[in-house]
Structure formats: C-alpha cells, structure tokens
Amino acid sequence: MLNFTGSTKKRVINLGNRTTGANQQRFLEQQRLQRLERERLRREDDAARVIQRYVRRYLDLHHHIAALSPPASSELAIAYIRLASRWCPDSPNLPAYITQVIESINTNAHQLSPSDLRSLVVACQRVNLTKAMDTLVLNAPDNYFKAPPGTFAGVLSSTTSLPVALKVNIGDSVDAFVHWLMNHSDPKQSAYPQLINQAYLNLVPYTRDLPNETLVHLLAVYIGAVGSVALSDVSVVTSLLSPITTSISDDEDEPGMVVEPWIERNLVQLYSSQFLDKLLQSERHKLLSSLAVLIQLSPQHRSKLCTAICVKREVFGYLYNELSGHEVYQKIVNSPTPLYSSLSQFASIANESDFWKLVYMFIELLSFFLVVTNDISLQKDQGLFSLVQLAEFADLLKNLTLTFIIKRPEGSWDRIKYASINLLNQIHSINQRLRFLPADFNTLKEIPMNVDILYKVYKARADREDADSTVTLSNVYAAQLEILEHLPYFFPFMDRVHLFRLLVSVDHSENWFTFHQSKLEAQIRRGHIFEDGYEAFASAGPEFKNQLAINFTSDVGGREAGIDGGGLTKEFLTSTIAEAFRSDSHLLAETGNRQYYPSPEIYYKLTLDVDTPDQHSYLRQLQYLGLIIGKCLLEGVLVDVPFAPFFLKKWCKNNEASSINDLAELDESLYLNLLKLEKLSSDEIDELGLTFTIDENINGTVIPFNLIPGGDQVAVTTENRLTYIHQLANFRLNRSLRAQTNSFIQGLYKVIDSSWLALFDAEELKLLISGEDKINIEEWIKSSAIGGGYHDEDVTIKNFWEVVREFDVEDQKKLLKYVTSVGRPPLTGFSSLEPPFTINFAGKDLNRLPTASTCVNLLKLPDYKDKKLLREKLLYVINSEAGFDLS
C-alpha cells in the first residue's frame, strides 16, 4: 500500500522519537498562511491602483475646472456651481461666486427649478455658506419643499435659522426635523406660534413611527413653543398623544418614563379644562384616543382631568355611551358564557387596542367619580352615573377582571387588571351600603373554594416567601390565591371564616413550639386590670401569641385561688376591653350611634403640643389595646364592643383612607350638611363665611385647624366647595385619626397577620369579632352541657329552656351575655363556644339568685322547680347586670 509522504521507494523506519505526522501538519499550515498573505498583498495592490486612478481623475477634474472661468450666462452658472462645489469646494473664489449668483437670482427665485434649487442648497452646504443658503431657502417657493423626506438632506444640520428649518421641515428627513425641533425653539418671535403649528402639522403623518420618548419630548416642546394650549392646534396635540403607550414618572424606582421637570410642567397644561374644551371639538376617534392616553400618561395629574370631565356631565355620559356601544363590549355582555371560561374567547378580542384603551380610561374615570360622589346622589340618580348603570358596568368589570386572573392571557395586562381590581373593590364597598347588585353577583360557581386545599396552598406560598424559595403553584391554585388576596368576597363568607380559623389555629400551635418558652405570667389586680396588663404585656409583641398564665389578686394583694386553664385568660381579656371602653377613657371616642373609634383628641393635643407626654402614652396604650383585640381573635374570645364600621375598615386595609361616604358613620349631621353645601348658590355660600378650617374644642377652648396649608386665608366658593367637602371629611376620618389607628393596628398585626384580616370587609369583621346576631335556641340547647348534679330531664332544666324560648331576643342576648360576657353566639354557632355553655346545680335555696362564671361560660342555677320563680330570678339578674358570683 502506498504512503503519502513522498517516500514511496524506501521503507521508513522510526528509530527515535520523530513525529512525522506533526511536522507534516506544520508544513501544510505554513503553506496555507503564505497563500493568504500573497492574496492580501494582491488585494492591497489592486485597491492602491483604484485609489490612484480616482485621485488622478479628481486632480485632473480639479485642474480643468479650476482653469475654467465662471460663466457669464446665468443658465450655465448653476451647472458650473454644481461641478465646482463637488470637485473644487476649496477653491478660494468659489464662495464669492456662489454668493453673487444667489444674490442675482434671489429676486427671481421662483423661476428656479426644484433641481436647481437643490443644487444651490447643496453647494452652499459644501462651502459653508450658511447665510446665503438661508436666504435662498427663504426666497424659494414653499411648494418646492413639499418633497419626499431626504430631498434636502443636511440642511437642518447646517442652519440655526428657525424660519429656514420650519420651511425645509421634513424635506431634510423626519429624524433630522424631529431632532431640530427638540433642540431649537424661540417662542419670543412674534410669528413663532403660527410657524410652529404649520411645522408640526407637516410632521403629523409620521408621528406613529416615533418612539414614546420622542413623542413626549416633542409634545412638551410644542406646548412650550406655542406658549399655551389655547394657541395649540388640537390636531398636532392629538397626533402626538395618540401613539404614546407609556406613562411618565418622577421616580426612577416607579414604572414609566422618567422625564425632566420642564417637560412635566408643560404637559400639565393638557390636564386643564381649557384643553378639554379644545379636545371636545376634535374628531371622535382623536378625542377618545387622546383622553385614553392622558389618563395613563401622568398618573399624578390624572385627577385634574377626571375633575374636568366630571364637571362636564355630558362628556362623562358620552364616554360611557361610546364604551357600552362598542362592538367588543356588546360581544362580551351578550355572550352566553363568561369571558373567563375560555381563553380562546378572550384571544378573539385581545388585539382590539382601541377598545382596551377606552376601557382603561373609563375605569380610571369611574374610579375617580366614585371617590368624589356620595351615596345619596347615586341613589337618587342625580350624579353622572346611576346605580343601574353602575351595576351593568360592574358585571362587565367582573368578567374582565376574573379573566385576567384566571386565564392569565399573554401580554401586558397588569395596568388594566389592577385598575379593574381597584374599581371592583370600590363598587363592592358601595354595594355594602346600598345593596344595588344582584344577590348572586359575588357567587363564583366556576371556581369552587376547597378550604382545606386552599389553606395548604396559602400556607405553602407564605412558607415559600419566608424561605425565598422558587416553588411554583398551578394556575388553578394561583388564580384562587389571587382572587382571595384581591377580591375575597367572591368566595363564600363562611368558607373564608373556616380558612381564617385554620390559619389562626395552626399559627397558634406553631407558635407554641417555636418560642420554646413558658407561659407569659402576670399578677393582675382586680381594680387595675388594664394598668397591670399593660405593664406586663405591652412589650410582649408577637410573643403575646403564647399561652397566658393570669393570677388575679385583690387590691390589697391577696392572690385568688385557681389555675388559669383558659378561663382566667378570657376574663382578663374581656375585663381589659371593658376598662378600655369606659366612658372616662382617653383612648376612644363614640359616634352618634354609640360606636367606638380612636379619640381624635390625641391628635389635636399632639398638634398643639398640649400634654404631649400623656398623648404619647395613650398611643402606646392603643397599641396594647390592638394587641388585646388580636389575642381575642386568636383565642376565639368574642368581643361585645360596637366598633365604628369606618374604623373596622382600616383594620382590613392597613389604615387605608376613608372616603366622604364613611363620614355618615362618624357624624351623620355633618355629612348631610356637607351635602347641602353642594346645592347652595354662590351668594348663600358667601353668607356662610366659610374658610378651609374646622373648629375643635380642646380643654374648653375652640381652636381652628387648617384643612389645607393657609386654609384660614382661603374662602369656600362654588368653585372649590367640592375640595372643601372632601378635605373636611379627610380631616375627620383620616388625618385626625391616622397616628392613633396606626398604633392600634400595629399591636393588632403583631398577633394576627394583616393578610388574614384582609379576607373580610368591615361588616364581616364585625361578625368575626363579636359573633352572630341571630340566636338559634335549638343549637344552643344541643351544644350546652348540664352538670354539677343536674340532668337533662330535671324539671328545672326543662323549665329553664322553656323560659329561654319565651324570652324576647333582647332578653336572650342579655342572658347569654350574663353567662359568657358576650350577648351573641360565636359566628360558627354554639358548638364552637369554648368551653361550652354549662348549667351547674347551685343548691335548693329558693332565695338565692342565679350566678355566673363568665370565664368558663358557667351558669350556677338553684333548683327552683317553679317556672315562674325561675323566670323572675333570671330576669332580675340579667337586667340588674349582677356580677361575678353574685348570690
């Protein structure tokens, strides 16, 4: 067999360490590199020859053209300039000649052909004759510059003249004109607004291809250039607005485009009623698309536009009619199945961008309207939007929101999704007061809630967040959790109660083993329960979840017999609350309906620096009271205290601000008077002499508080009365209560997770805290225990239950409160009362009264046998509020 090394006639014997193969490879590689080098040299030589040829040609042309004398004929002058400026731009005599030619033809510039004009403009650029070029352009006919972009390329980079730039316009290029506009303006020129309007109108056909940043910048430049929106051309503004798909922000950590302060200052003018009036005169499509962009463009100024629209009632109605009449809207509401039942159904409308812009705009607008309107106007259909219309739109909103959550469609839907969630929650709050939605509106049959499974998923997510894990959840459970987090009322109330109890019980048991500590012990004097408990437990924080060991003592120090197996803890908690809610307490105030909320006097005195140490002490005591209420929820101890609904709302929503409609719960008289203020004429308001202040009585002295900075100098008028109404409501409901409420919920959240309370609204939370209002006698009997010598068949026991059945509801509640300290059964029924309602034998002394041990839900009942006597004795003790172990 032949080898391929070239040695075919001799035998190759390797006697050493020679590596013939490696040498061969090196040789081949060297040959390859040499070939490449020879090829490179050949290319360089060819390139040099080409360059030499062009240089020789250029030099020859330069020599011949330089030898030519400028022609005397004007017909040949432009041809000469075209050649000379290209081949001899450095000729010393050429600039003077071009200037001379331009001066000679300026008076007859309209006789130039467009191509000749173009040649002269290019020549001026080549020899840096900016002034001559500007003169030529200004004298040339306007229609010469209505050429395709690029015809006069380079002009805008060569001139600083505003009239020249505006005349050439996009004839240079769209990008060059946009760049020039963004970097040059001179609004001091008298004709500038008219020139700039025309310039931007030429740009209109190209705005949809410009990026968001450029559009926003141009818009701000344009408004600054024309001086005000009054002088603006609405076609220019709408063409720049409509393509924008982002929002601006003044915070780099927030989503959106960060802009310079001057840009934002100029854009604010677009949110005025003056510009809205101009916008209303534009075409329907431009009006809708521009409003939709303005709503999202500057969130911090959105309220100004919303206010202007709400003032113009016809605009609000027009926008709703446009939305409800839209083809996609009708398709959704008329579909036999919900939108969230099929992703393909949503996909068929996902690309309807105009519809989604309109939906988002109306959601934000309606959300604002519901904040500033009042329930009475809604009920009487006096506002911009009736309850009937609100119910119709709520149905569409529910459909869309659940689709975003359940089906999780691809694309950027978060903005509209969270706006929809916010509005749905607003509508739910209104429905809690006015009950205008169908009874089954909150029923979600498509996603039944399995409490046990959802609890495990909920807990898994919480553990994942704590551990910073990457565990993912299935779409079904992720959707259920999101609904539970943002729209909990779509799941049945009792299911959420069950979930809450599961979370609380597991947290309680986990806490028991986590802390590895003994019970929290305290010696509590009977006459100083709040004071001693505060000293013992105020600093306990989350450890207050641990089991308590309460030892009661008399005021002189004698310790009461007994071990705290839970009964003494219950008595301690209920007694602490009773002391805190005494009429002489500095912590709480009462509404006209005798419902409790934090005392605003604490804020007043802190603001005025009156008794400051005491006020700070009251804030710490409110935090301790929150700790106590949280412990009651943790232990299942009912609290028979009527909290004000607007205060309960703040528990559920982490001290979220209350609105004007909540003012009726605090001070109904003030609420109605403020609504009357909306109807008064200008003269009637002037007669009242109101300013942006509110008077409060502090230690017998009436002191005014400003509702806004300098409010005592601002008179209330028809123009600002709506602001006055909302500022006054804000002061009474939020500002004067914020510090106190924060202190309270800080204590509450140390024991009960805030997200657990967010499962409920204020009305539901009231039931969770204080129990069910209705009493089921049969369940009461079935869940009770009989002991201490009594049996179910004893006459006294039978008589007792007969008397209870015959009691009216109020007496039944009084009896229940006498024995358990709360006049309501637990929310989940008497079966969950711990310990159970118990009746014990208390001897046969017929003169003795029934007594109770509320700490263990125990009634000590003498064996009266006589039903009439039993009734009299029970009525006496429950109506005289006889206390613990009264005989």
Automatic annotation (TrEMBL):
Catalytic reaction equation(s): S-ubiquitinyl-[E2 ubiquitin-conjugating enzyme]-L-cysteine + [acceptor protein]-L-lysine = [E2 ubiquitin-conjugating enzyme]-L-cysteine + N(6)-ubiquitinyl-[acceptor protein]-L-lysine
A Pfam cross-reference name: HECT
Biological processes annotated in GO: protein polyubiquitination; ubiquitin-dependent protein catabolic process
Signal peptide region: none
InterPro entries: E3A/B/C-like, HECT_dom, Hect_E3_ubiquitin_ligase
Keywords in alphabetical order: Transferase, Ubl conjugation pathway
Official protein name in the record: HECT-type E3 ubiquitin transferase
Organism field: Diutina rugosa (Yeast)
Lineage, opening ranks: Eukaryota, Fungi, Dikarya, Ascomycota, Saccharomycotina
